[in-house]
Design brief:
The complex is a heterodimer. Chain A is mainly beta. In chain A, 0% of the residues lie in helices and 48% in strands. Chain A is globular, with a radius of gyration of 13 Å. Helices cover 0% and strands 54% of the residues of chain B. The termini of chain B are far apart. Classes of the chains: A mainly beta, B mainly beta.
């Protein structure tokens, strides 16, 4: 039973390009969360999705960032026209249900985005 | 608005001794707290949690203490082992029942042999 799979592990983009980060939740998990960790900082919530629905995107920057979790396939975090400040580690987590004793989060290993 | 704060970026402890990691919070509405452990190049893994109705929760070598009046929690690891070297984050749901967590900045723990 594979854990939360994120790919790519490392992604290098030039300023102005698009970055696509993928997250496949654990089998049976229908809730996906994206967090971003800037250097020397803690994780910051970005967005919470269920299949085909964005539930809470209050942590997403208003421009250039979007997320989806289609009926089939992985969740995608898309960053258009990347800038150097987007360089960070992006973590995806999944859970089976909306609530859980430990919040049921299982994190993936993250995608480290570097914008050059 | 840093609602969860870990003021010590790093901590070095000798193997076998007690490690104490601290966390302060500002939002008195927080009712549940979690500690995550993170190794380099890996995602955070859940370690231990505590509800605000308790002041202590223990799981093997790990104990979390909660002082609601001081808005302070701490994670005790005893005895510390080399494999405990990692970054530790405290976190809390943004509001009761919220799915999103607010994380502290993390404390890098190094266990020296």
């Amino acid at each position: 039973n594979a854990g939360v799979m994120q790919n790519p592990r490392h992604l290098v983009r030039r300023r102005g390009q698009e970055a696509r980060l993928r997250c496949s939740p654990m089998k049976g998990h229908s809730h996906v969360y994206w967090y971003r960790q800037l250097p020397e900082e803690g994780l910051k919530f970005m967005v919470y999705l269920q299949k085909e629905n964005i539930i809470d995107e209050s942590g997403m920057p208003k421009e250039r960032f979007s997320a989806e979790f289609p009926k089939e396939g992985p969740s995608i975090l898309r960053i258009q026209q990347v800038v150097r400040g987007d360089s960070a580690a992006y973590f995806c987590a999944s859970s089976q249900s909306r609530t859980g004793g430990n919040y049921g989060y299982t994190f993936g290993s993250g995608t480290r985005l570097t914008v050059v | 608005d840093q609602q969860v704060k870990q003021n010590s970026p790093s901590l070095s402890v000798q193997e076998g001794r007690i490690s104490i990691l601290n966390c302060d919070y500002t939002n008195s509405m927080f009712d549940y707290f979690l500690w995550y452990k993170k190794y380099p190049a890996e995602g955070p893994t859940f370690l231990i949690s505590i509800s605000s109705i308790k002041d202590k929760n223990e799981d093997g070598r790990f104990t979390v203490f909660l002082n609601k009046s001081a808005k302070h929690l701490s994670l005790h690891i005893v005895p510390s082992q080399p494999g405990d070297s990692a970054v530790y984050f405290c976190a809390a749901p943004r509001y009761q029942g919220a799915q999103k967590l607010v994380f502290g900045q993390g404390t890098r723990l190094t266990i020296n042999p």
